[in-house]
Sequence to fold (633 residues):
Amino acid sequence: MRAGETRLAIDCGTSSTKALLVWPDGTSPPLSFDGVPYLSSAVYVSNDGEVWTGQQARQAGVAAPSRLVPSPRRPVDDDVTVDGTAVNALDVAAAPLRRAAAEAERVAGAPVRDVRLVVPAGWGPRRRTWMRQVAHRAGLPQPRLVEAPVAVAEHLLATGVQLPVGAFIAVCDIGGTAEVTVLRRGPSGFEVLATLADPAAGGAAVDHRLAGALLADVNVASGDAGSGVMMDSVRAAKEALGAHPAVTVPLPDRPPVIANSAMLEDAARFVLQRVAQLTQEAIAAAELTVGDLAGLYCVGGSAYLPHLDKAIAEQVGITPVIPFEPGLAAVRGAADAGAAVPGSFGAVEVPVPPVRRAVAIAVPGFASLALIWQCLMTAERNNVLTVHYWVDLNWGEFTMAAVFALLACLAAGTVLGSLIAARSPTPGTRTEGGRVSTGILAAVSLGAAIAGLYAVVTSQYFSQPLSQFLSWALWPIMPIVVLAVAMAIVAARQWRAPHGGWSAMLAAPTGSIVTAALGMLLVQYSLTTYRWPDTALLIDVAGRLGGLLIGVGVVMALVQPLMFRLILSAPLVVISAAIVGPRSTGILGVIYALAVAVWWAARLWSRIIRPAQPAPGEARVLATAVMPPGGGG
Fold:
């Protein structure tokens, strides 16, 4: 089996680290560490600076608890101080990931190149960058970061939960800490609408309170005392009390004690109330009501806390659902992130018909060739045999040819990405985000190269300096290039996919291209054709009509609603038709290039950064229409 056929998903939580190795047949058993299906996140720093994990770290921590780091997953800028010694924070945090990667390599027989890491939804760019640095320090390839609630939602879909496009759900992730997130399912995946977290409202807080009750020590309840081994015993007792009324808890250097369900309920009471409050606040922060939710799901290692469902139902008004193996829901969802879900509603990528895709590529491509051909053939040479030789060139037509060449290449971006990925040995280019990002960057490079080639060929054809040709070919397309690179970054990091998929996103408006290209062809015809007394008026009308069409093409690129197009067209087409002349063509070409850049910026904003969301009422109607009777979450 090749390592590229497997995927590794890791959820490095506050208390424990879970990892799954997904095989080609879809099976994904959890990796085992020291005989258990999870790895304690706590690490031990030895005297020589070596970082130990798992049972080895716990055993060493009994003798030297000051060298035990209970929760290394917290971004810090400086070194971590362990027993008075400064230790690199990245090395400490990377130890559990390095252990998981080593175990995955042992089981798979080779390094696994497709890695997904679960991160909290509330983490911003700084913490995500820190997590990537930790993964790099652990020897992992560039990982795909998957937000925990998004991973849970993907797992729910994979297990058959019916969540139609437009549905809202809430996810309560109660692990070592508590995080409540409200999500909406869009055509391209799940979007986080609101997330709230409280480190003092998770399973770790229950462990400390239960330990304090067992030892009659209030300091333990506040987290100021207690060794790692003792907290492991208390945590195991908490989990066992979910199925037994009382258990015996062995403690280091102390006689064993008895823990019962009443003690656990008392220790968990504050946490349950706080989780219910967080859920209510998160729903309000998303500007929704409980009636808007298609479901509320509790996951995490502490999802089985007694009376959790009752506490949430009483305060929020909806009974939560606990999926099977709630502690593995996030890591299983991350393992399958990006995979197609059979029978699910809405597709990540809406297939673009081949004819439409060919038209989106061919129209700007042929328009570019037509404009550059006319530009070369109709340019007027002046004083050819003197030192004051110059060429009258339609710089606007030259600029528009470069713009259309770039648009044609961008329309072929997904095709280029697929071709590159099929022949690339790098696993990152074969993921959906890597393929699209590579395709966009390849399209930008190819489009800019063609524009530069136009400049070189034209300058050599007329024996003129290259600088002016490069200025008119490259500078006007720079805004489009910048926006396309921004889209490539979005695709590479897989923050969000546009509605309808990337193929539709990269297709330029063919109506605007045809109109503007025809207008510029008419303008150049009117400026360079021979005039006869009986055709002068017709030629002038053709030039004014060309200017009018360029104005219409600009409007078609700027706005979409028909009413706005009519309002904006009135003054713009009059101005563009009135200024048509040998000295104004460059202005018209640059105006059109800027209009196209505005069009790209609007699509980047409205389809990726701030995509339109249906009103809650519309979402309820959609859910009622799509979901089968009794098929709610």
